[in-house]
Amino acid sequence: MAGPTTETVFNIFRSMESGPAAPSSAATAQAWLDHHSRSLGFFIDGKFVHLAERRSLSVLDSKGGQVCGVLCAEEADVSQCAASAVSAFKSWSLLSCYQRAKVLLRLVGVLGLHGQCLSELSQLCAMACSPPSLIRLLQFYSSWAQLRDTLLSGWTPLGVVAVVTSDDSSVYSLMLKVVPALAMGNAVIVVPGRSVAPPALLLAQLFSGAGLPAGVLNVLTGSDVTLGVNVAQNPSICYVTYSGSKPDGLALVQASAGMGVPVSVSPCVGATCPFIIFESADINSAVDEVIEAAFKKKSEVHWVLCVQESVCDNVVDRLKLRLAGLKCVSLQSEADRSLVDTAVQEAQQQGATLIQSCSAPPSGPLYPPTVLCGAAPASPCVVSPAPGPLLPLMTFRCHKEAVAVGNHSPHGLAASIWTEDLTLALETAKNLSVGSVWVNSHSVVDPCLPVCAHKDGGSCTDGGQEGLYQFLRPSVSSLPIRSSAVPLDYSKFGTEESPAVIPDPASSPPSYLQFVGGKACKSVSGCSVAVQSPGGGGGVLGLCPEGGRKDVRNAVEAALKVQPGWQKKTPSARALSLHALVKGVEAKRQDLATSLHTQTGVSMDEAEKEVELSITRLALWAAYCDKVQGGSLPMPKSGSALSFPEALGVVGVVLPDESPLLSMVTLLGAAIASGNAVVMVPSQKHPLPTIAFIQVLQSSDLPAGLVNVVTGRRDQLTVALANHSVIRSIWYWGSAEGCRYLQYTCTRPLKTLRLVSQEGQDEGVDWTQASPSFLEDLWRNAVQWKSVWIPTA
Amino acid sequence: MSSRNPGTAFDLEWVSRVRVNTQAVLKRAQSIQGQKLPKKQWQSAWLLKAVTCIDLTTLSGDDTPSNVHRLCMKAIQPVRHDLLRKMDMHDKGISTAAVCVYPSRVADAVRSLKAANSSIPVASVATGFPAGQTPLESRLQEVRSAVNDGATEIDIVINRMLALTGQWEAMFNEIRLFREACGDAHMKTILAVGELETLSNVYKASMVAMMAGSDFIKTSTGKEAVNATYPVAIVMLRAIRDYFLCTGHKVGFKPAGGIRTAQESLVWLTLIKEELGSEWLHPHLFRLGASSLLADIERQIYHEVTGQYAAHHELPMA
C-alpha cells in the first residue's frame, strides 16, 4: 500500500479516506518544559523550588514516552510549604472581596493568553483540558469571591486547604476545588496526581503571574496518594478534599483517620452511569450521543445503555450502522487489553451478542468499540466494567423499571435520560438516585451545576454555590484545634465488656425504655446500663436499655420503611408535623426540665431556659421545612438547569454531652425538616433528657420509625452505626478514638461524616445561639444535591 | 446508476412516530462542523469528488441560450485541464453531475451538450418551481414537457400547504403522480425546508417523499429565506437511513441553496460520510445544488496544485 504522503489523488478520490490527522503541535508547551530543563520542582511561596537531592519521577505521554520529570516531596518540603501557606492565608484572607475577585478575573486574561500552552501541556501528559471551561470556572467563582461578604455573611474561610487528586483526575476537576477554595479566601496546597502535575504547576505559575500573593497556591508533587496523607498530617491543614479514582480516595481517607482533619472525597473517576433511552426518545440523536459518550470522548465514567424493550431493535439497528464507521480505540496498556478480552469472553459465555465495527486485532493495546447486547445488572461487565471501549446494553419494560435498573447500583454520580416526554423526563429525574441528571444530553459540566454523587458516590459536593460551603465555616463556630493522633486498634473499638449492673435491693433506680420503630421498648439483649448522677458521685439515676447491633438494625429497618414517604410529603405537611412536635414539647416542658435538672445538675431555672430554647429551635426547623430549596441555575446555554436538595435517607446521630436537650432537638430538627429519618444515640453521659423526649415522640404524629432513640454505650453503638450500609451519614460527638474509628471504617460504602471530638477542650459549639449560618451549616449537612439539565434549542 | 427507489405504500405509522430533539440535532451539527477537514492531496481529491457531485445550476429569469451554453461547457470541463493533469486526474472523467435549468431552457441545454458529445444529464426544476402554488394539472404538464425536451432528471417541489396542514397522504399521492409523469427520468423531491417550520416536519416530509418513490430528496429551491443548513440535513439524512433500514432502498440526498465555498463543500462531504458512510459519496446518491461553488473549488484546487492564489480571470468562467 502506498505510504500516506505518496497516496495519489485518484486513489483517495475512489476511497474517500479522510487522510492522516494533522499532527498537533506542542511547541509552546515543549518550550516551557525546556525552560524548566524538563524537570519540574515544587511550586512553593510563589516560585519553583527545585531540589537536586529529591527523587525524580517521570511523567509519561499516552505512548509511554517521557514528557518531563517531577520531584517527590519529602517531610521538609511539606512543612516548608505549609508554613508558607499559613502566612499567605493571613494576608489573602485579609484582602477585600473585590481584591480577591480581581485576581481571579485577571487570571481569565492570563489564560486567554497562555491557554494554548496549557492545553498543549495537558495533551502531552495525556490529560484532557479545555481552557474555555477553566475560564468559565474562574468567571463563575470570581463573582462568588466578590459576593462572599454580601451573600454569604456569617461565613469564614477555613485556612489552609489541601486539594489532592489521583493520577487519572482531570485538570478541570482539580480546579473545580481549587478555584472556589481560593475565591472564599483560603490558601491551597495542591497535591496533584502524577499526570496532572505539569498542568497544575503551570497553572500555579500563571496564577502567580496574575497577581495571586506568594504562598496562597502551592503545588507539591509526589509518587502517589501517600503524599496527600503526609500533607494531611501537617497540623496547619484545616481540610483535605480529594478528587479522582475511588481506591486512592479511600486509601487517603483511611490513612488520615485519627489526624483530626476532615477529609472529603469526590470519586468522580470510574463510576458507572446509566444511559436510558425511552421509546419516546429521538432515537437517532440518542444513538449518536451514546456513541459519543461511550467511545469517542476520553471518558471518566463507564456508561451502561438501558433501552426500552419496544425500541430495542431500532436502537440496535442504528448502533450497528453507526459503529461500522468507527476505528479501534487505543487502550492504556497490554494489561488492559487482556482485561477487556476476558470481559468480552465472559459476556459472550453468558449469551451476550457483540456489535463491533471490526473484529478485534489479535493482540496489542487496541480494541474496537463494542456493544454487548443482552447484558443484565448481574453481568460482570456491568458490575465491574473493564477499562476499554465496551458498552453493555440492557433492556427494560416500563418507566418504573427504568428507574429501578438505573438505581440498582452502588454508584450515584449521574444519569443520561432520553425522552421527548417532559413529564416522564422530570419524573424519572426525580426518582433516580444520582447527583446529576442530563435530559437528552450527557456529560454536561458547568461550574454552576453542583456535582454531588449520591449513595456510595462520595462525601462531597463540588461546583455551584453548594460547592463553596466545604471551604467555609460559620463565623460563630471556632476552628477545632487539632489533637495529635490517638492510637487505636480498629478491631477492638467498641468491643469491651460492659460493667455488670449488680442488683442492689437497697436502691431501686427507675428503668427506662428506648424508642425503636415508634415503640418504647427494651433492648434486644435485655441488658441495661446505669445512668450516673452528675458530679460523678457514683449515684445511679436509673437504668436504660443497652442497645446493640440488633437494636440499630431494627431502628434502621423501621426508618427505611417510612423515610421515602416522609421525604415525598410536601414541605408544608412536614412543617405541620414538626409544629405538632413543638406543641408536644410545650405540654411536657415540666418533665423535660426536671430531667435536665436531674441529669446535669443545672438549676431548675437554667433547665427551664434550655427547654424554652428547645421549643423555639424546633419551631425554627418547622419553619425551615419549606425554605430549604433549590432553584434554577444560571447555565450559559439555552435550556433549564434545576437543582434540588434531597434528603440523605437515614442519618445516624451520636449526640453531644453539652446542652443535651437543646443539642438533640437542634440536630433532630435539621435532619427531619429536610426529609431524613434518624437513629439517635443519646449522650452516654447525659441520656435522660433524650429519654424523656421519647414521650413527646410517642404522642407526636411523626411516622413510626422516623425518629429512633437507641440507648446504651456510645462506642458499641458507634460501631453498630458504622457497619450498617443503609446509614448514609453519621454525625458524631464523642471520643477522638470514635472519630478515628468512624473515618477509618465508613468507607464501603462511603458515609458523609461530621466528627467532633468533645474530649479535653470545649468542643466549640454554642448550642444556644441560632445564627443563620450555624443553622444553614446544619441543614446543608442533612441534604444532598441533585442537578437536572434540560437543554433546549 | 443503481436500481431506483420504487417507493412503498403510504404508511402513516412511519410519519407519526417520529421524534426529533432540536437541540441534540444542533449539537450534532456543531460537532460535524468542528471536525478537522482533509488536507493536502486528500483535500484535492475530496474537492474533485464534490465537483463530480455538483448539479451546476442556473435558475434566473434572464437565462437565455447563450448563458445556458456557457454553463454546459463549464460542466463538461469544470476544472482547468492543466490543473487536472498535474494531479493525474485529466483522464478520469471529471465533470459535474448534471446541469440544472428551468423547463423552458431544457432544450437549449440538451442541444449544447449533444453538440459537445457529452452525456452529462440535464436536470430541470418543475411543478411550479419554486412555490409550487399552481394547479396540479399544470404542474404535471410541466414535468411531462421537461421530460419530452430531454431532461433525464426532474427536481420537483412539494406542496407546502399539504405538509404544513398535515395532509401527508395527499402529499404522498401528489408525489406519486409526479413520479409517474417522470417516467424514466430520475426524480428529486425538493422539500423547501425553510418553509416547513419544524425539524419534525422535515423528517415527515422526507419520509413521505421517499415512500412516494423519490430518487433524491433535496433541501431547498434556493429561493427560500433559509436554505440548506446542517441541522436540517442531519434530519433528512437520518430519514434516508431509517428508510434504508426499513426497505433496503438507498435514496440520494441533495443540499441546495447557499453553498458557495470549497470549505462548505468539504463539510457537506464529511457530513454524508459520517451519517451515511462513504457509499453515499457518489453522484448517484449525492448531489450539491450550486452555481458559484464551482468557481471557489477550482480556485482551491489551483492553490493546492500551484501554491498560488488565482485571480478571477485565470480560471474560465461559467
UniProtKB/TrEMBL annotation, chain A:
Q: What is this protein called?
A: Aldehyde dehydrogenase 16 family, member A1
Superkingdom is Eukaryota
Where in the numbering of this chain does the Aldehyde dehydrogenase domain appear? Answer: 63-473, 529-753
Q: Which residues cross the membrane?
A: none
Q: Which species is the source of this protein? A: Oryzias latipes
Listed GO MF terms: aldehyde dehydrogenase (NAD+) activity
Q: Which InterPro entries match?
A: Ald_DH/histidinol_DH (IPR016161), Ald_DH_C (IPR016163), Ald_DH_N (IPR016162), Aldehyde_DH_dom (IPR015590)
Automatic annotation (TrEMBL), chain B:
Q: In which pathway does it act?
A: Carbohydrate degradation; 2-deoxy-D-ribose 1-phosphate degradation; D-glyceraldehyde 3-phosphate and acetaldehyde from 2-deoxy-alpha-D-ribose 1-phosphate: step 2/2
Pfam families with a match to the protein in the record: DeoC
Q: Which GO terms describe its biological process?
A: carbohydrate catabolic process; deoxyribonucleotide catabolic process; deoxyribose phosphate catabolic process
Q: Which reaction is catalysed here?
A: 2-deoxy-D-ribose 5-phosphate = D-glyceraldehyde 3-phosphate + acetaldehyde
Cite the active-site annotation. Answer: K218, K254
Give the E.C. number(s). 4.1.2.4
- Note the Gene3D superfamilies from the entry: Aldolase class I
Top-level EC class as recorded in UniProt: lyase
* GO CC annotation: cytoplasm
Q: Which UniProt keywords apply?
A: Lyase, Schiff base
Q: Would the keyword Lyase be found if you checked this record's keyword annotation?
A: yes
Q: Which GO terms describe its molecular function?
A: deoxyribose-phosphate aldolase activity
NCBIfam families with a match to the protein in the record: deoC
Q: Which family does it belong to?
A: Belongs to the DeoC/FbaB aldolase family. DeoC type 2 subfamily.
Q: By what name is this protein known?
A: deoxyribose-phosphate aldolase
Q: Which organism is it from?
A: Oryzias latipes
Name of the gene this protein is made from? DERA
